[in-house]
Amino acid sequence: MYASSARYLGIFTLMLVSTAQAASLALQEYPVPKGAHPHDVAPASDGGVWYTAQGSGELGYLDPKTGKTRHIPLGQGSQPHGVIVGPDGAPWITDSGLNAMVRVNPKTDQVQTFPLPAGGDWANLNTATFDKKGVLWFTGQSGVYGRVDPKTNTVEVFKAPRGRGPYGISTTPDGAVYYASLAGSHIARIDTVTGEAKVLTPPTANQGARRVWPDSNNRIWVSEWNTGKVAMYDPKTGAWREWRLPGQNPQAYAVYVDDKDMVWLSDFGANALVRFDPKQETFQVFTLPSTSAQVRQLLGRPGEVWGAESGADKLVVIRTR
Asked: What are φ and ψ of residue 172, in 5° steps?
């Protein structure tokens, strides 16, 4: 483990004007060690922020109050992709290099590895989510998804119904688990009892569904990488809707719904974060100060939306209150 201290950039105040009201938001970037190439972020329970340092094979931790970071090595060959905080308060990592799920004890930094079953192919692990029973579900772009039961340390892997592509994954407030298939251009709902997945196809073909996130009404929001759209699936009615992000060449990568049911996306094409208001059906664009920031994932907590700038070796936050 090592620690680093770096000056972090000042706060940029952004004024958002709509027909309803004007709201002030603050955007701030925090440098992380060079070569870390942070991929995903997860706000920690103590006010800090975990991030996967994919370039160095480590788990990083940022203290937003000081701008200081520390890194925890995850093992030889590690290439961490996703990170979330589990019900136990610990960060859980999908590590494609280790072909394993990894848990880090937030108090001792002890690393615990949950390898995928022997004899299977390399999964190209991506993202994870906990269901309401405390079981961890994960995706692998090679065409698999799976689960880890922390009570028994059992790891199971299932073949995706349409092969390659499982990427983003999340759990709805009512306990349903959905994943997005980037290569398969669809989303799927997992039966958390049997492990079977049901394919659900957006209206636009070859749209490149990359990540998924639910709102408070259990509707599923999807970032469509190939078409630069955000889609919404309503499980109650089976209906879909899609909206194209503003700009000439939008590339919607990450999607996250905050505690106010505002939909946030990262747009590679505009080098920006984008907020979509579902009620007004309007977009607000926040150009990032760093060029080619490449925000690959968004996550947050009340009043904060965090992203990992993999192309700039920084984390970024928009404070919404």
From this structure: -80, 165
